[in-house]
Each structure stands twice: as structure tokens, then as C-alpha cells.
Amino acid sequence: MLNCIRCGGKVSFFDFIKKTSYKNICSNCQKAVDDGVKGYIQKLKSFILDNYVGINEKDLMNDFKKEFGLDGLDFRRTEYEIYEESFSGRIKELKAKEERKVFLEKVSSGDENSILDYLNDLRKNTSWAAAEGVKIEEYVKDIKAVRIRFNTRKVNIKNINDKEIAKLWLEYIYWDIWNIIRILFDNTEILKEWIEMFWIEGYTIFIDKYGHESDGCILSVEAERNEIGKINRDGFQKYILNNFTKVFNLIISEDKSIVSHYEQYKQRITEENVKKEETEEFKADELNIDNIDWFEFEILIKKLFEAMNFVVETTAKTSDGGIDLFAYNPESVFRGKYIIQCKKYSGNNKVGVRDVRDLYGVVTAERALKGIIVTTTNFTEEAKNFAEGKQIELIDGNYLKLLIQRYLKNQNE
Q1: What is the rounded CA–CA span in Å between residue 186 and residue 199?
Q2: Of 3, 299, 332, 395, which has the fewest Cβ atoms less than 10 A away?
């Protein structure tokens, strides 16, 4: 015979086998406990709905037991459990809502990683019409610009001698760009304080006028947020071919890669910072690779390879064919030319297989000993698989920190 854990009285055999919520409480206490449970659940429900997100069910159950003096209660199927099952979906919804709220607060405060995550969420969850391969490449915080690339419609230049065909192709291109700009503008109101300009770059594999296949950026558009907001959309969309270049700054070529607005910006910054590179003392002990800009990152990689006994040259910041640094090793075993690309990424952005494949093509064309991609983040699995067995070296953020510790910090000591 059991004793009731609430009043100490006897729990009869019939009480024990009855289909009550608990198996160690007497029938006299059953109603009082059930009423208490219902009242507690109602209070709990109001509390969750009005105030609380991120609920821990075990903690709530322990609180419940303590409140009713039932620490030894052996549950079968209580009102609480029935309630928890029916309400768990609402709890998850509230959790997600609170997480989204915190995320958007970070976005609106200008957190760089959160801005990139927001833009990538937009990219994944939005239909870009005919535009393919849309990718958020970079957020340039200094001038509040976002760089986006997409794959343009393929075109055979040899078949566009006819002006009407060329005009039709150009109109298609304008439509693709306009759709990207429109979607970005309409969905980034929360970022208007942090994004003032969009750089759209179109990449393609095309047949040049000599009949050779080539791959590169053939167009670049600079779109300012203020100008986008002034557009009469109905009139613009009806006469997009006539209006496009009046509103946006466009660079386009039919048969060769162009120097994009982003590359022109990098070139200007490089020229402004040449003296900085020559005069500033490099302090590896104070370095945080996550907080430096792309120019400082390139300087860092140059100094790192110089510390590893390479002779390093920086390429001009134009359409450099996928090369940031040329490195030469004079040692007999390692003698040869190395091609280095610097990828300063943030957040969860990873270097993809296309970048690795492009570098491999440059290594082959330049007859280099090896190609090296250095990034602050990581590489996709597809990129790693492609590089395996080839003269390509992938240096991710973690490995880069080890190299800095070994070659630069030790050098300063």
C-alpha cells in the first residue's frame, strides 16, 4: 500500500489502478491537484504568450512540482503534458520570432556579418527572374556599397553583327540587371543607412571576335540608392533600352573582360595607400584578420610570403586575370613562379569552386608552379574536391593564423 505524497494518507489499490493523472496520490487529493495544475497552466500560458521566449520544459516541470509540494510526483499523463504537446509549436514560433528580432537589430545597427547574412538570405529566398548565378560578393563598408555578380546570358559575338540582334541581347541584359536592382532596392529598406550603392557585375563564357572561348566580367553597373528611388518604374520598364544608361553608370564590352567599378575603386584606394604600405610598421601582434580591410589583407599576405623567403610582386589593380600577387621562390627545390589570390571574406561566405577553377586556368596559362588561394574564412567542399591532386594550395582562415604565428609573430620577437 502506497502513501499519498501530498497528504500522507493511504493510496488504496483502487486509487492506484484508476486512470488518474498520477499513480502515487490518493483520490481525495486528485481533484485539488488537477485544479492546481489547470490554474498553473493558464498562468504559464499567459506568461509565455506575453513575456517569455526560449522556454525550458524541464525547468518548468521542476518549478511546477516545487510550487505544489509534489517533488516525488510520478507522472503518467498530466494536464501539463497535454498542454505542452499542443503548445510546443507556438513556443518554437516565439523562439524563431525572437531570434529574428535580434538578428534584424544587428542588421539595422550596421553589423557587417549580419548585413551579409541578410543579403544572402534575400538571395536564397528570392526569384531573380531570368538572371542566373546571383551571388553576393562583398560588402564594402567604407563607402556603403554592395558588390553582386550574376551570370549573363551567353552570346556569340560572331552572330551579333546584325544590329537588331545586338539590340535584343542588350535589352535582355538590361532587364536582368534591372530585376536585380529592383529586388535589392525593394527589400533593403532596413539597410538604407548602411547601403547607398549597388555594384552589379555580369560574368559570362563568350566567344570573342576571333572565335575563341573566353570567361570574364563583360559588364558593370553602378546604381545609387537615391537615383533608384527617383525612377518612374512604369516609364522605365516600358523604355528600358533608352532609359538605362541615363540612370545608371554602365561599363560594357562585347568581346573582352572589362575593368569593373569595383576594380576601379580598388585601384583608387591602392594608389591612395601606397605610401601607407611603405611607411607603416607592420605589427603582427596587434593583428586581427577578421577586422582588417581587403587592402590591409593583401599587404599581410605579401609580407607573410616574404617572410617565407618568397620574392613578391603586387599586380596592378585592374582586370588582372585573377592574380593578386606574383611570388617567386629562388630556392632550388621550390624554385618557380607562384600565383596568389587573396580572398577577404566575412561571416559565412566561403570561397567557391568557380574561384578555384578560375585560378587553375590562370596557373596553366601562366605556366606557374602552383596557385595559392588565401582566405579569412573557408572553402566549399566542392572547391576542396576540385583542388585535390592539382597544383593548387588552399589556405583557410585557421591555417592562415598558424602561418602568421609561425612566420610573422616569431619574426617580430
Answers
A1: 16
A2: 332
